[in-house]
Amino acid sequence: xxRSTTTDVRRIVTxxxxxxxxxAALGAEYDAVIxxxxxxxxxxxxxIASTADLPVGMVDEQEGGHYRLHDGAGDALFxxxxxxxxxxxxxxxxxxxxxxxxxxxGGFAVEAPPAPTERLVFFGVRPCELAxxxxxxxxxxAAAHDGRAKGEQQYTDTxxxxxxxxxxxxxxxxxxxxxTCFCASMDTGPRARxxxxxxxxxxxxxxxxxxxxxxxxxxxxxxxxxxxxxxLDRLGGRPAADGDIQAAESVSQATRASMKREMVPDAAPLxxxxxxxxxxxxxxxxxxxxxxxxxxxxxxxxxxxEDTTDLTGxxxxxxxxxxxxxTLDFSYIHGGSIRRDTRSRYxxxxxxxxxxxxxxxxxSGCTGCGRCITWCPVxxxxxxxxxxxxxxxxxxxxxxx
Amino acid sequence: xxxxxxxxxxxxxxxMVPRTFRIIRRVRxxxxxxxLHLHAxxxxxxxxxxxxxxxxxxxxxxxxxxxxxxxxxDLNKLVHTVxxxxxxxxxxxxxxxxxxxxxxxxxxxxxxxxxxYGNDIxxxxxTIGLAPLRPLIYEVLNRRGHFGKVVLCYGSRGMNDILYExxxxxxxxxxxxxxxxxxxxxxxxYRGRVxxxxxxxxxxxxxxxxxxxxxxxxETMTRPAVQTLHDRGVTSDRIxxxxxxxxxxxxxxxxxxxxxxxxxxxxxxxxRYDTIESIFSVREL
Amino acid sequence: MVAIExxxxxxxxxxxxxDMQPDIREIVVGCCANAHYRPGExxxxxxxxxxxxxxxRQGSVAVEVHAPGREGVVVETIGEGDIIGWSWLVPxxxxxxxxxxxxxxxxxxxxxxxxxxxxxxxxxxxxEMYKRFIPIxxxxxxxxxxxxVELATEPSE
Lengths: 401, 285, 157
Description:
The complex is a heterotrimer.
Chain A: E1 11-14, H1 16-29, E2 32-39, E3 42-47, E4 58-63, E5 66-71, H2 88-91, E6 95-104, E7 107-111, E8 120-125, H3 127-139, H4 158-165, E9 168-173, H5 183-186, E10 198-203, E11 218-223, H6 226-232, E12 238-239, H7 242-257, H8 267-272, H9 279-286, H10 292-296, E13 303-309, E14 315-322, E15 332-333, E16 336-337, H11 342-361, H12 371-374, H13 382-400
Parallel strand pairs in A: 2-8, 8-9, 9-10
Antiparallel strand pairs in A: 1-11, 1-12, 2-3, 4-5, 6-7, 6-14, 10-11, 13-14, 15-16
Helix pairs in contact in A: 9-11
Chain B: E1 19-28, E2 33-40, E3 53-58, E4 62-67, E5 78-83, H1 87-93, E6 100-107, E7 120-126, H2 130-142, E8 150-156, H3 165-173, E9 178-183, E10 186-187, H4 197-203, E11 211-216, H5 219-231, E12 239-242, E13 258-259, E14 262-263, E15 270-272, H6 273-280
Parallel strand pairs in B: 7-8, 7-11, 8-9, 11-12
Antiparallel strand pairs in B: 1-2, 1-6, 2-5, 3-4, 3-6, 12-15, 13-14
Chain C: H1 2-13, H2 22-30, E1 32-37, E2 42-44, E3 52-58, E4 61-65, E5 73-78, E6 83-84, E7 98-101, E8 105-111, H3 112-121, H4 123-153
Antiparallel strand pairs in C: 1-8, 2-7, 3-6, 3-8, 4-5, 4-7
């Protein structure tokens, strides 16, 4: 699926009608095209039939604990960034049946559910989201990694792997960054490099730096795989010239330059050597342990299992559903929880995301999407917390120098 | 008997879906514990290594992680010693021979055995900790010629709480094994040893510089056991411990069993102590 | 004379007295004697005067606490090479538990009452004794605490 060498990439320039053709063509071949829509005042990922279903002209305003969507981008199709949902909603559904059991005779029979067969298109996947999908591929054993438990010890979630193989990805390179974005410092964006079948860059009409009404947006569409390439001919449009490619690059560069936040370098070893830093106590005072961050985070994967029985008690279903390390009984073992305090639970989440994830899977668990900052009710900022620890270390070193 | 364990691999199945096993025997043990002997309903063998655990499922109630405590060379009988502590184990305690249990596994990092060849072997455990160690002790005795001294240090609350007491007497009867037992209290007049298991480590006869120690105790009591081993000159890279965390999936997907960067269901529950020494001291990790 | 020379050598080799200054050690040796207890015999009982401490040379000793109206409890066994007894150093100088020989026990008894009198005049001697006893007591307390934790947390719930 990865065609990152420039010689193999095909690029065309098309318009909105071309994108409608794309959505229709994909919709005919796959079970559904999932894309961004406006729902409940936010951008969510739901089935779309054409570009008219997209958040046309919408711009999002994000800050710590703050999210607003409003009009203002004219005919732009992709002027917003990411909302509270991520593609794990589809690849790693919030509730899955693990197996069903039926009592019979003196025992019971176990039946595994059939493999998932739905084939979906993910339309509008941002570079940080591509990175998140690649990260979850490693967690669920759908892709190799060089973390700690590789080889035999890494199991494969066959359901995830099946859904992943059956999906077609159309990426969108971001035309602007929200205030909470920091993908540039995590090296996951703002331009997609691989992991997609097609990638779209929305190019504003010359010479407009602002988005105005009646502007004619054009779309550079590049292939990332054979099956992506096969679709390009059907979209109308013309082959991309160097000027178009440059324009698309400029869009990404402008997005990168506008990014306001960044993660401090070497966050993984920084946090590993500061497990008892007083900053954890400080953030614990603010953290509500509400688990929003884990729900919106595109890489968080913790789950729990639960049984449901019917009234006769003869039929049981065992479900797997999303869970959060912020719940008190997440770490419960007979008698009590290992992490009793909000302090230790917040530390667990953040050090796992930025530090121990690397030991486990060979990459950071964070893609810099900023959702955890936006959707935290009290605006706790993971980049600020890491910086605070980084700065205090630097001051301590200077003091002793 | 000697040589490596049979290398039979279980047929590839989804590790999240259980196999059904029938209880063929139930033994009451001390201290609120019981042992179940299980046979696979599909008749296929169950291969595992000492130190591994299964996720045992009670119909309609739930699953719990339990160490395997039988002889791993017997591929047709699966043995688990369980203590009644929560909902699932209490429901399991009410099951009888003929009832069926779901089994997923084996999971986890086993006790290393070949790595210990040529050394004295020291087992340190207490109360129910003998259950996860039993398969290892069986296997070490199966390969007795590869080791120097073999020592078991075991402690329980009182005389009536000693797990597998008959087996301990059998082992004590061997000329090639030291068995030291202590209790926390005895009735006045009791002539046996009273005190902590750590004291047994002090008096056991082994060569600290060429000993491999296997410690199976609660996390709280693992620390003092390791400290006593250190005091006797056994270094951290010669000590193996087994730890416990909330297990839900057993395959590293649910995230519950994490300790620092380790998924205890995959990287543990057996750890060489030097590999976790630094995080062991961080509270509530 | 021969017996005391033998004891002197014994004490010099024992870790507890090992690095004591020889002249101080001589004083202690002067207060030593050999003792022997039969299995089941009580070495001392709670409430009696604590005028000795013991170095166990062979055998094990059960530390018992008597519980009126019910069976007493053995809380600890002390074995070869260990020291029993610091009540001779702590007013009101009475034993706080019973000590019973589990088997044939050979011990060296050291006359604490005699040492107390000598310590009053010889603070150097006092320093050497306290310096050695306090770590023993510290270790016993730490171990007792751990056993409390173990009893309280296992089995859990």
